[in-house]
Amino acid sequence: MDNPEECSVCCITYDESERRPRTLPCGHTFCSSCILQLTTANQLTCPDCRASHPATSLDNFPVSYAMEAFVKKFKNVQLAQTAGAAGGKPSVKPAAEKQMSVKTRGGTTQERPSGMSKKLWSLLGEQKNSMRSQVTGSQNTQSQLDQYVTWLTDQNEQNHQLLKKVEEFTHNMGTFEKLIKEEVARVVAMNTGG
């Protein structure tokens, strides 16, 4: 968890009203707003571990007072750093504001935008990797489909040639049958009259 002061679903900092941190029976914590949005048919599936919990009301999930105290302390530290910077003291950027470099596939380096949380930046990177994998998978599937089309074309050509041979064989059998009938008629004619 890169930013424990944020709900990992909406990536918004917990507060003491709409986004109070609440703990599920599985131990994971999310804001009140997200819990309400994730509740369906009196059931809530944890976004982290996928455990299912009964959710008849928001009161099913207790407020995490320890997390609220942590968030207050965190905000106070941020305010002190900001005030220190205004008074000429060196400023320390909060963790969510630090630049983060990531090497891309082409070897170039991409900087995390200063307003973007580490969690969101990480999710973005995961999405990019997932898309790359899907593109590679699609390219492999396309290659296999191309090979299959080539094989089907070859099979069709072989079938066409076999069909020609069957037609030729059928024609020859008709000619052979005609010759046999003529021979039978000649033998019958020789036996009867001579």
Descriptive keywords:
single chain, 194 residues, mainly alpha, Herpes Virus-1, 3-stranded antiparallel β-sheet, two-stranded antiparallel sheet, 3 helices, 54% helix, elongated
Structure write-up:
The protein contains three helices and seven strands, in the order E-E-H-E-E-E-H-E-E-H. The chain is mainly alpha-helical and 194 residues long. It has a domain at 21-98: 2-Layer Sandwich (Herpes Virus-1). A hairpin with a 5-residue loop joins strand 6 (101-103) and strand 7 (109-111).
What is this structure's SSE topology?
Blueprint: E1 21-23, E2 29-31, H1 32-38, E3 39-40, E4 43-45, E5 52-54, H2 65-86, E6 101-103, E7 109-111, H3 118-192
How big a fraction of the residues is strand? 5-15%
Query: What is the number of beta strands?
Result: 7
**Helix amount:** 40-55%
Structural class, judged by helices and strands?
mainly alpha
- Taken in chain order, the helices and strands follow as EEHEEEHEEH
So, the CATH homologous superfamily of one domain?
A: Zinc/RING finger domain, C3HC4 (zinc finger)
Please state the average pLDDT score.
82
- Number of helical stretches of at least 4 residues: 3
> What composes the largest sheet?
3 strands, antiparallel
Q: What fold name goes in the CATH topology slot of one domain?
A: Herpes Virus-1
> Which regions are unreliable across 5 or more consecutive residues at pLDDT < 50?
90-99
Radius of gyration: 39 Å
Q: Characterize the overall form.
A: elongated
Strand order of the largest sheet: 3-4-5
End-to-end C-alpha gap: 111 Å
CATH class bucket of one domain: Alpha Beta
Quickly give the CATH architecture of one domain: 2-Layer Sandwich
